[in-house]
Structures are given as structure tokens and as C-alpha cells.
Amino acid sequence: MFDKNLFAFDAQKFAEVFKTADMTKMFEGAKMPGFDAQAIFAAQQKNMEALVEANKAAAAGYQDLFKKQVAIAEATMTAAQAQLSELKMDALSAEGAQKQADLMKDGFEKAVANLSDLADTAKKANSEALEIVQARVQAAIEEIKDMSAKATA
Q1: To 5 degrees, how large is the angle CA 37–CA 43–CA 49?
Q2: What rounded mean pLDDT belongs to the chain?
Q3: In this model, does residue 75 exceed pLDDT 80?
């Protein structure tokens, strides 16, 4: 339906330029007083490394979150099956009704506790990733101050 060449941009091919070329050599001829291309590229490399680490931390946290969700779903299904097998609607006495109400209450409380646990896990994953990025931002600010001081000296 669409011509493949209509959207010919290939991100992977574009990224190859940065993998094979030494970006610092591209700017060697452009000498500017007070401009340290090596320092800037080193800082950008650190920025990318920090983002990779932040993504790894977030991915690990969300993998843990997913595992907890699966475990909760399995436990919920097992508990629901057990409750359904015990439920006898034709002979439901006052005691049986109370037992069912207690089971429902316990299930609700467990669900709230599980949701709280999942929220805490997600918060932890996000916090760890944010801490990595914040640390890199602070370091980058110091690097910029140092470069600025050297450029004006």
C-alpha cells in the first residue's frame, strides 16, 4: 500500500555512523578557543552510560513487579478455586454465609495489601532510576562549571 522509500529513514543505519566514526575527529579542524571537544564528548558518553544504567535499574525493578503480579494472580486463582469448591449455595446457613463474608473480607484485604506492595515495588524501581539520572545531572553541572572556568581563564 505504501511505498517503502516514502519513509526511507533507517534509525539503525543512522546509528552506525556514531558507532564507527570517532566523533571527536569530526570536530578536530574546528578549533575554537576555550572549547574542549574531548571533554564535551566524554561528558556525553557519561550521560549515555548513566541513562543505560537508569534503564537497567528500571527494567530490573519492573521485572520484579511483573513477577509479583504473576504470583499474586496465581495465588488469587488458587484461593478463588478453593472458595468456590467450598461454596454450597443450596445449603447456605448463617454460619456458612458468615464464613463466605469473612473469606471475601480477607480477599479484599489481601488485594489491597498486594496493590500496596506493587505500588511500592514500582516506586522503588522509579526511585533507583531517578537517583542514577540525578547523580549524573549533578556531575554534568560540575563538569560544565569546570569547562566554563577553564574557557574563561
Answers
A1: 140
A2: 78
A3: yes
CA–CA gap between residue 58 and residue 133 (Å, rounded): 11
- Taking the C-alpha atoms of residue 120 and residue 128, their distance in angstroms, rounded to an integer, is 12
Closest of 142, 80, 70 to residue 106, by C-alpha: 80
20 vs 61, which has greater pLDDT? Answer: 61
Average of pLDDT values for 26-36? Answer: 60
For residues 92 and 96, give the distance between their C-alpha atoms in angstroms, rounded to a whole number.
Answer: 5
The residue written with cell numbers 445449603 in the block is 91
For residue 135, the number of C-alpha atoms closer than 13 Å in the C-beta half-sphere is 13
Terminal CA-CA length for the chain: 61
DSSP state of 92: -
Cell of 98: 458468615
The percent of residues above 70 in pLDDT, for the chain, comes to 71
Of 78, 75, 86, the C-alpha closest to 113 is 75
Rg (CA), the chain: 29
Are 23 and 48 a contacting pair, CB within 8 Å?
Answer: no
Q: Which residue has the higher pLDDT, 72 or 96?
A: 72
